[in-house]
Design a protein that fits this description.
Length: about 100
């Protein structure tokens, strides 16, 4: 096959990017990242509210400061068991809620 024919069949980066922007996979990944970030923010705010450092929280939950930092940055989603340990260490109650999805307008 000639080089010209091979090039003609390729999609441009712009067309690939446009297709990805509307894919369900991309929307799902974005939602998951947003949820991780929001959860991380809640953990950080709760920790700061009680006046603990990341290292102090880590010691209370049997973890390390870098692990707490990654969690607070939204870099990983903690397990339910980890969230329970964090809540207990901070003197908070862990509440998990399921709600109907909001439909985007």
């Amino acid at each position: 096959m000639s080089q010209k024919k091979m090039t003609a069949k390729r999609r441009s980066w712009a067309s690939i990017k446009r297709a990805r922007a509307t894919s369900e996979e991309r929307r799902s990944a974005y939602r998951e990242a947003k949820e991780a970030f929001e959860l991380a923010e809640r953990v950080r705010q709760a920790r700061e509210r009680v006046g603990l450092t990341q290292a102090e929280l880590a010691a209370r939950i049997g973890s390390t400061q870098p692990a707490v930092a990654r969690l607070e940055a939204g870099g990983n989603i903690p397990s339910l068991a980890t969230l329970r340990r964090i809540a207990a260490a901070l003197g908070f109650e862990l509440v998990v809620e399921l709600r109907p999805r909001r439909v985007a307008a």
